[in-house]
Specification:
With 159 residues, this protein is an alpha+beta fold. It folds into 2 domains: 42 residues, no CATH class; 91 residues, Immunoglobulin-like. It is built from 2 helices and 7 strands, in the order ααβββββββ. Strands 1-2-7-6 form a 4-stranded antiparallel sheet, with no helix packed on it. Strands 3-4-5 form a 3-stranded antiparallel sheet, with no helix packed on it. Strand 3 and strand 4 form a beta hairpin. The longest helix is centred in the N-terminal third of the chain and has 18 residues. It is extended and about 75 Å long.
């Protein structure tokens, strides 16, 4: 509410309102409504369904580290394709409401899912993953230019 009376930010170059100002304002309004109705912002609600992660290069490897606290070994699935990574996990638990009155309820349970495009192709058969202290680490060797395999396609001509 307090930002509603502030002037719109101007584009540095032309002094006009930024193209994304209305989108930003709409997101802020949605956050305000979610916060007042559910007690959680829409950004936090989405992050509960899609784990936060870091993706970086380490030499000839692409590394992804994802926060997945409270996930059991048999409820975690990692799928790697040459151009994308898929993470799926089931966070067991939940609350048994036995007449308790909750003052705050922020922990999330259920299925979390994240699929992301990889910036480079990887060697699917050499991927390694480990889970430690609530963090999943996936190490994917990058496919080098020499290893990229194309397929020659014969062209049929109509005669």
């Amino acid at each position: 509410m307090r930002n509603r009376f502030l002037p719109a930010r101007r584009d540095e170059e032309f002094g006009l309102p930024s193209l994304f100002d209305s989108v930003r304002r709409m997101q802020e309004e949605m956050d305000r409504l979610m916060e007042s109705f559910f007690g959680v912002s829409s950004r936090r609600a989405v992050s509960a369904l899609a784990p936060r992660l870091d993706m970086y290069e380490e030499g000839d490897k692409l590394v992804v580290e994802a926060e997945l606290p409270g996930v059991d070994r048999d409820k975690l699935e990692v799928r790697v394709y040459p151009d994308r990574l898929v993470l799926r996990a089931e966070k067991a638990g939940g609350r048994e409401e036995k007449g308790e009155s909750y003052y705050c309820c922020e922990r999330s349970y259920g299925t979390v899912y994240r699929e992301m495009a990889l910036p480079v192709e990887v060697k699917v058969d050499e991927v390694k993953a480990e889970y430690r202290n609530g963090v999943l680490k996936v190490v994917m060797p990058k496919l080098s230019r020499e290893e990229e395999q194309g397929r020659k396609v014969d062209v049929r001509f109509d005669e």
